[in-house]
Amino acid sequence: MQLLEFQAKELFREYGINLLDSISSTNIEEGRKHAKEIGYPFVIKIQVPVGGRGKAGGIQKCQNDDEFELKYPQVMDLTIKGEKARAILLEKMADIKKELYLSIFLNRSKRCYTIIASAEGGVEIESVKNQIIKEVGLGDVSDELAREVAKEMELEGNTAEQFIDTLKKLSKLTIEKEAELVEINPLAIMQDDSIMALDGKFVTDDNSNFRHPELQQYQEKTAIEEQAEKSGFSLVELDGDIAVVGNGAGLVMSTLDMLSDNGGKPACFLDVGGGATTESVYEALTLISQLPRVKGILVNLYGGIVKTTVVAEAFLKAYENNLIDLPVFSRLKGTASEKAKEMLQGSRTNIFDSVEDAINAAVMGIKK
Amino acid sequence: MTDIFGLLKGKPEDSDYENKGVIVQGITGAYGSLHTKQMIAYGTNVVAGVTPGKGGQKFDDKIPIYNTMQEAVDATNAKISIVFVPAKFFLGAAKEALNAGIKLLVAIPEHVPIRDTMETLDLAIQKGAVVIGPNTPGIMIPELIKIGIMPPMPFKAGKIAVLSKSGTLLYEISDALTNSGFGQSITIGIGGDPINGTRLIDAFEMVKDIPDMEGLVIVGEIGGDSEEILAQRIIDSGFNKPTVAYIAGRAAPKEKRMGHAGAIVMGNYGSAESKVSMFNKANIPVAKRPAEVPVLLAGKMEKSD
Known about the structure:
The structure holds two protein chains of two kinds.
Chain A: H1 5-14, E1 22-25, H2 28-38, E2 42-47, E3 59-62, H3 65-76, E4 79-80, E5 83-84, E6 87-92, E7 96-107, E8 112-118, E9 132-135, H4 143-152, H5 157-177, E10 179-190, E11 195-197, E12 201-204, H6 223-230, E13 234-237, E14 242-246, H7 249-261, E15 266-271, H8 278-289, E16 296-307, H9 308-320, E17 328-335, H10 337-344, E18 349-352, H11 355-367
Parallel strand pairs in A: 14-15, 14-16, 16-17, 17-18
Antiparallel strand pairs in A: 1-6, 2-3, 2-6, 4-5, 7-8, 7-10, 8-9, 10-11, 10-12, 13-15
Chain B: H1 4-8, E1 21-25, H2 30-42, E2 45-50, E3 58-59, E4 63-66, H3 69-76, E5 80-83, H4 90-99, E6 104-107, H5 114-127, E7 130-132, E8 138-141, E9 145-148, E10 157-164, H6 167-179, E11 184-189, H7 200-207, E12 215-221, H8 226-237, E13 243-248, H9 272-281, E14 286-287, H10 293-304
Parallel strand pairs in B: 1-2, 1-5, 2-4, 5-6, 6-7, 10-11, 10-12, 12-13, 13-14
Antiparallel strand pairs in B: 3-4, 8-9, 8-11
Helix pairs in contact in B: 4-5, 8-9
């Protein structure tokens, strides 16, 4: 899960990392109050769990009430990479001398945490020049190492000391909260040589959630996603009209790819996990029945030891209970598939021998 | 370099040659017991199980159950274990196994925290042990030994090595290979997590020198850069056996986790385009569909003849 900027900053504050005054709000009435507390000039920043906010117009300066009244609703109405505003952060305008970059992230290929730091921050990580890269095992940063990084960045005096302090705090935060990524970009050197985190990015390791009840308040799940999780499924909602269900993340991704190659538009990615039972397939159909826009269901189950009749039973039950009234295009690899075909004769479920055939039929069937 | 065949088969002079003992951790759980039966049916020599509190009992009336890994290893001298415990208990189970002298640990659980995997790997390196997974379907030499949860049907003994991040795609693609007459010498499930005990590149090192290997199939997916690193290694090492890749997740949206904890594109890091272009650079064709893998492999073989 990627936290919003203001949530990441709440964690930064808890760990003593320097921040400018800022307050988040979800409507303009609240925002007006905050505007008075913070005082002009300030910036308003859209809170979405994706990058590229500045380019999309999601960060705006406000010098006075007129600008605030104009810009707050504009920013609130933006959609960035498909994400709507969760909140608006008002943050005091800063008098910056220089922008640095600092992050600690999980280096997957090296299998260790890694620091990236640069004296040339404020741009996207791909464009950050003169990166200083240090591998730090499970995330612990020693005084010596922090000092070395500051030196390589050519920081001096009080600025260097504050940078070292920030890096140590960031390391503590990474370890204690089990982050996959913590990034401060920019980390600014102010006119008085102090250091401030002007932005914050924080990605959790969701598999460690059970050890972090304190992070649960940041969980942002739709009712349907929560329901999927309870069933042990993974669900990602997409904006097309063909629901895609299968067992195993790789297989479902592969089905999405092939469907898209054939001009179909997936409505969701739904992985029901390794095995397939009447209950799990019925539960999957229950979830799909709650999704908007769905005109058909593409099922791709590879069950070496799964009886396909068990899956057929779930389809029949779903029609019988009026759970769904949609055509199903299904590829069921498993045992007793002839019997399953017989069972489904006359229903709105078609069984195909290959996934390619199921996809073609789904794309054609939905167009009609 | 890890002699994976030495671990799985042993040497012809060994008394347990091609019959290496395997201990099942979490043997009495629903999942553990189901797959223990399946492994035994496949011919895997399961010699003991471990479930704390159930020591002294027998699984299926024949396999002794112990309370601890140390007892199980002392009694059987097995060097291989497979772990079926819930994710939050994985670290404890893995440490116990490695400290008891296990040299090949197959980690089935999904949702193991990254930190726990990293701690496990630190210990494994100290002990000179290999970890497969977590979140893996397992490892197998078809028709000889299966340490994992794969169904038997897709696999057939042969001369193609298959490395896969995904479980069901491993089955799907092995099935397609088998149907086209390409049996498998070994299949290794890398797992769908961000941190893998055996990375694609490690698995490649394990299989690249198999003397009679006729081809290599790499089944990757979005997330991380292990496919890119493997492609670079293949270029650098001059490996020239026919090789084909498949990458799942071309149509996946960015910054969304697609089922696997590791299957996420962040910025350009982990994108399918990046992986496909590196494989192309290594002169490795990338199949568009699982069914296309054997076709491309056959094409590669014709050229190399």
